Every structure is written in structure tokens, then in C-alpha cells.
Amino acid sequence: MMNRNAPRTLYRYLFRELVTIFGMSLLALSLLFLVVLGIQAVQGGYSLRIILPWMLESLSYSFYFTAPLSLLVASTLGYGRFVADSEYTAAIASGLSPLHIAMPMLVLSAGLCAIGLATQGTVLPRAHYKQRNITRYLVKQLEHIGDSKKGKLQIDKRDGMVYWDEIKDGHLLRGVHIEKKIPLGTFSANSDSEPLEVDEDNLDPDFPIPPTFLNADKAVLEVDSNAEAINLTLYGVAVTVPNPDRGYLFRQSGMTKHHEVYHLVKLEVQFPINEKSKREGDWTNHELRERIHDQRKKVVFFKEEVARLESLRKPAGGDGEPSAEEVQYQKAVESLAYHERRVTKAQSQIWFRVALALSLFTFGFIGFPISITFRHNHKMVPFFIGVMLIVAVFYPLLLLGEALVKSQGLPAMWCMLSGNLVLLAVGAFLSAKLVTR
Fold first, then answer.
1. Are 409 and 344 in contact (CB under 8 A)?
2. What is the DSSP string of 168-227?
3. If you count Cβ atoms within 10 Å of the first and of the last residue's Cβ in the chain, which end, N or C, has fewer?
4. How far, in Å, CA of 222 to CA of 350, rounded?
């Protein structure tokens, strides 16, 4: 007769085994992610001291991809060893159902999936925004930071640059010169001079703000990942502030005739490393739904506008030039297509996140029937079968679904979830065969 405590003992045994493998796999993939970033940084000449904080920040974004794979590893290796050691045969011979054996993995994957679904609309977009700023915007700013002699650092897309004569250890700069169009104000801290008062209300709006020049004997560079900014602490500073009130030398370029110089012992300058404009992947689900609502209103408006202008279209004149009504009609058609694309992009982004969250359950669920169905004395066989199935089915269908939504306007939910649905169907089919065997 089977011991009533046997399922509980089996649950604890398998759950502990699965959690251990999942944790070790997640740690290994995270370390691999950091190593790859570190190698890229070193090859690019960046200082690890500077980029280490944002490398750690990037882990939160990578978890949405590494955690599902870690669950697949835990499921296939854990149950693969369970089968290879004949423990599965002993459990079935004791009267246990395959569903009992699968329960620990289902509980673990369902719990992680719930966390993924709860955070995919809030945590994931913020992590994506920060990771994108780091890998695209910050790296471009630090592309010359490893030079041992003269170098430069772009601090603004159009009107900000830091130059230096020498850099040491990737963060200590000497002979620093900064050109930045800083809003006119006061540089009076630690200064022997009277502050410069500028009447900004009377500045000519047709001409740019004149650049402010800062020269320093040395500077210490640090990256503040929390504030998403590059901090420069300048020592021995001379600040040259233009005075537009006393006349321009070249108005179009913003160059003035007169300047005021302030000498400072120390000055801290901070430059943002984030890109101000956000994309669909950076918006939370709440923001995306608000934009979908707004864009749908515009779609309705331009549909009505297209229908109205279509009845007013006139053929081209004798010179071949389109009529004014035809031009308005074409513009309305283009605007309609643009706002429809915005709707589909936002919808695909929401369901893309749902697909990633559901993969936490899908990858763990399918590992069990694969391990039992393709029994083998070597526990790595189910692992490789599972990996090949994920690579050949889930990710191609996810990318294909995204392309179909954006290009053909197909329903976002079914296209983006197709990979999960196919894997769940395969897993359900294999599990049903195990139960009825």
C-alpha cells in the first residue's frame, strides 16, 4: 500500500531539486551576460569602474529572457536526472500519477509566471528604457573614454562637448575644457567675483544661447546610474560666461563681444545620459493603452476625412499637377495609415510582454513531458530536445507574429502568443499520452 506522505515527500524532493537547478542556471546566465558586457566594455576602451553600476542595472532587463530559459534548464535536467536514475519508474510503480510528479514544476513555473505578468507592464518597460539608454546613448558618450591622451566626451546631442589632454584610470581627467550652452544664470559659488546678472527676458529669441566655456586643471568622472547622469567634479575652474547684453560679435552663431570670467575652487557638472524621447518599448502598459485610445480617435477622424475628401477629388489639371483636393486626400490617407501603425505597434508591444511573461510557465511546463517521453539514460538528451524546440518554435513565431501585426495588421493577441500556444499544445499532447499510457 502506498504511503500517504509519499506525494508530499516527493514534492519537497523534486521542488528542492528544481529550485536549485533554476537558481544555478539563472546565476550562470546572469554571469555570462555580465561577462559579455564586460568584454565589450574592455574592448571598447571603457573603464569597468565607470560602467559596472549600469551593468548591474541591466540584469533586471535580462531576467525576462534568462528566467524562462533557466526554467527550461531546471525542468529538463531535473526530470531528466529523475528518469535516468530510474526514480520515475519507481514512482509510477508505487502508484503515483505522472501529474503528481509534474506538480512541483507546475507550481514553480506558475508562481514565476504570476510575478512576470504582474511586472511586465511596469518593471519591464522601465528596465528596457534604462538598458536602451545604457547600451545606445551612454556607450556612445563614453566611446573615447579609454584614450590615454587627448579625447572628448559628447554631453549633449548638439551643443555640449568635454575635451581633455590626458585621462588616467578611465575617470581622472587633466586639462579639461567644456563647451556647453548652459542657460544663462549665476556662477557665484566659491567665486571671488560678483555674480553676473543677465536679463534673459530681453534676449532675442531668434538667436541661440551663447555657449559657456569651462576650463579646469583636473576633473573626476563618475556615472550615477540612479540619477541616469554623468557627473564631472571639476577642480581649479575658470568659467567664461558670455554677456549678450553688451553686444554680439556674430549674432547668428551666438558669439558675444564681452565675457565675464569666474574662478572657482570646485564645480560639479551633471549631464543626463538618458534619451528624452521614449518609444513603445519604454512606455508602461497603462501609457500604451492611453496612447491606443488617443490614436484610435485619430484613426476614426481620418477615416471620416478620407471618405469626405474622396468624394471631392478632382482629376489632375492640364499641366499634370494634382488638384488641391487630391493633395489633401493623399495627406489624409497617409495620416490614417500612420495612426493605424501606431495602434498596431502599441498593441504588439503589450502582447509581446505578455508572451514573455507566459513563457515562464510554458518553458517550465513543456520540460516535464519532454523528459518523460524521450526517456534516455543520459539526462542531457531531454535538455537538448527542449532547447531545439524552443529555438525552432517559440522565438521564430514570436518574431513572425510581431512582423505580421505591424505589416498586415493581424490581431496582436493571437500573433504574439502563437509561440506559447504551440508549445502548450505540444506539452498538453505529450502529457495526455503519459497519463493515458
1. yes
2. ETTTEEEEEEEEE-PPS----TTBSSPPPP--GGGS-TTSPPPPEEEEEEEEEEEEETTT
3. N
4. 35
Number of H helices, E strands in the chain: 12, 9
Domain parsing of the chain, residue ranges: 6-122+346-436, 147-272
Amino acid 359: pLDDT: 94
Report the half-sphere exposure of 367 (CA within 13 A, side-chain side): 36
pLDDT at residue 148, as a whole number: 54
**What one-character-per-residue DSSP string does 131-158 give?**
HHIIIIIIHHHTTTTT-SSSEEEEEETT
Containing 386, the helix (H) or strand (E) segment is helix 380-389
Query: How far is it, in rounded angstroms, from Cα 240 to Cα 252?
Result: 20
pTM, rounded to two decimals: 0.70
Q: Which residues pair with 174 in a beta bridge?
A: 166, 218
Q: Give mean pLDDT, residues 226-240.
A: 77
In tens, the pLDDT along 139-175 reads: 555 555 555 566 666 665 555 677 778 777 666 778 8
Cell numbers for 224: 550615477
Euclidean distance between CA atoms 253 and 236, whole angstroms: 28
3-state secondary structure 70-83: HHHHHHHHHHHHHH
Q: Which residues contact 80 (CB under 8 A, 6 or more apart)?
A: 371, 376, 379, 380, 381, 382, 383
Is the torsion defined by CA of 287, 139, 356, 112 positive or negative? negative
